[in-house]
Amino acid sequence: xxxxxxxxxxxxxxxxxxxxxxxxxxxxxxxxxxxxLGELHQATGLPTSTVQRLVSNLVAQELLDRSGDQIRxxxxxxxxxxxxxxxxxxxxxxxxxxKEIRDATGEAASFFRVEQGYRVCVAIAETEHALRRNMxxxxxxxxxxxxxxRVLLAWNPELTEQVLAGPIEPxxxxxxxxxxxxxxxxxxxxxxxxxxxxxxxxxxxxGLAAPVxxxxxxxxGALAISGPTLRMPRExxxxxxxxxxxxxxxVTRTLGGRNST
Length: 261
What we know:
Helix content is about 45%, strand content about 20%. By secondary structure, it is an alpha+beta fold. The strands form two sheets. A six-stranded antiparallel sheet has the order 6-5-4-9-8-7. The protein has a three-stranded antiparallel sheet with strand order 1-3-2. α2 (about 35-45) crosses α3 (about 50-60). The protein is elongated.
């Protein structure tokens, strides 16, 4: 049956291709950032020939990158992602506050959100000190280690149970891997309204974090101050608690949010 003259069919054909392209792109995740053609075939259920054809075209258009037999999301996508996040109200509110925190403390101030079971840095005001922690926008970090992860888990019981159900990989000698101990520390962070850690994610580095909430009292993300423990011993972190919690409350109010505690 000929369909060349059917305008409805002509409209549907591109959408079918787009849905297949989306299936391929959706197959990638933070826990599985690269795959082979065979793995993409298994993940999507699309015919091998379709996966090969679409991947070749997506690589040609720089929407996917290929290195050997490994395929991953293309760097060009980052430009589109940056455009999408640039207009987000949360980042527009958070960015000047991060600069205020950085200017008041001299240390790096950052904002993290939960993405697919990890915490991701989505904004940062970098310190001017030469000695600094290795943090940047887009940095992906496991949730259990550090003050930020503790705060993000403290107001997310379901995610906490998921994290505590599996083995916790140590990032340093100070990483808390005992789930019973970690559970208590997460509960303490919720009771305190903030968390302070040293050396759990990165040796000789400290962090202080506080939550930001949305209108439904859910955690939008966490504000954090981080730097070398040499400049940020626990006594100094404790002196900055009121500053950081106050700034987190300022962002929460500006977003129309409310604390659930």
